[in-house]
Design a protein that fits this description.
This protein is α/β, with parallel strands linked by helices. Helices cover 38% and strands 20% of the residues. The protein has an eight-stranded mixed β-sheet with strand order 1-2-4-3-5-6-7-8, with helices on both faces. The chain is globular and about 45 Å long. The site of one 2-acetamido-2-deoxy-beta-D-glucopyranose has 2 residues, from loops. It holds the Pfam family DLH.
């Protein structure tokens, strides 16, 4: 029993070597360090822009829509940089005009209700549209939107037909990690492939809602996927305890879910 088991392992190892297969190569995902992109103003808004090394040959872009902590949060910039290392031009508009939510939203003086009321679709859709318009001005027409928490909803809106963005001028594929406040209408309005990564523990997307979203995605008739990551809570796509192997795995896997989604469906 033991020798044959080892033989099987040996054969498997040789096969991997022969194909140099990078199974779960997560080296492009940065958890720590210094962001490599820069802030530029376009179409009236600041945007964090990060480019792949082979910039000349870039034909696909990622519109990165942040959580309430904005492009000011280092982890958001680092994750945007990770998409650039995967080969995409990345544009992350400043969704909160320089004043995102504080790192700890429970600090006195910060009113979440007021913040969300003053950053609804009326305020945010035009900023998202400005990011898409900037990407299109570079001649890039294959655009995926990736959104986290707050931004997840706007990724769906960017890929749907509920905004003033003309049909065909939005984004072509959508990924959202633990989207908050995502409505049924926004899912039904989607015009292309859509993928969702969900946390196991998320008051804004409990198990019953996950089931509803999966069935709404199926109802769109478009390509879709929905993944739940064990051992995670809301926010894991961006902010995790990287010394916890389950959380680190989930963040990396959700990134790869998005990067593969855009590589294949854009
Ligand atoms: C860009 O693509 C062309 C054609 O596929 C290739 O010959 C060239 O080496 C690429 N350049 C870079 C910088 O990757
Ligand atoms: C937050 O603002 C809303 C109105 O925007 C108000 O009704 C509510 O009482 C405020 N909450 C706190 C804790 O101040
Ligand atoms: C928006 O898209 C949905 C789904 O493709 C479709 O049923 C609906 O008619 C569209 N609405 C408009 C205004 O184009
Ligand atoms: C991070 O995860 C490690 C390993 O599970 C744990 O020991 C540590 O207490 C966690 N840190 C925080 C701040 O939760």
């Amino acid at each position: 029993m033991l020798p044959s088991f080892l033989t099987i392992l040996g054969v498997a190892a040789t096969t991997v070597l022969a194909h140099n297969c990078p199974v779960a190569d997560t080296s492009i995902v940065a958890h720590l360090g210094t962001p490599t992109g820069k802030i530029e103003a376009h179409n009236g808004y600041n945007m964090y822009i990060t480019k792949p090394e082979m910039e000349m040959n870039t034909t696909k872009a990622v519109l990165y829509l942040t959580d309430v902590f904005g492009i000011q949060l280092t982890q958001n910039k680092l994750l945007a940089d990770s998409f650039a290392r995967a080969g995409f031009l990345v544009v992350a508009p400043d969704l909160f005009n320089g004043t995102p939510a504080p790192g700890d939203i429970n600090v006195p003086g910060f009113n979440t209700t007021t913040f969300l009321n003053t950053h609804g679709p009326k305020q945010t859709d035009p900023i998202v549209a400005a990011g898409i318009a900037y990407i299109r001005s570079l001649g890039i027409t294959k655009i995926g939107a990736t959104g986290y928490c707050y931004g997840g909803r706007y990724a769906f809106r960017a890929g749907g037909n509920l905004t003033s963005i003309p049909t065909g001028q939005g984004v072509n594929a959508v990924f959202a990690a633990h989207p908050s406040m995502l409505t049924d209408e926004e899912i039904k309005a989607i015009q292309g492939p859509a993928s969702v990564a969900a946390a196991e523990t998320d008051a804004m997307m409990p198990a019953a809602r996950r089931t509803e979203i999966t069935s709404l995605l199926q109802g769109t008739g478009k390509e879709y996927s929905f993944a739940v990551y064990g051992g995670t809570s809301h926010g894991f796509g961006v902010r995790v305890n990287v010394t916890d192997p389950r959380q680190k795995f989930a963040k990396e896997e959700a990134f790869l879910q998005a990067a593969r989604w855009f590589t294949v469906w854009l």
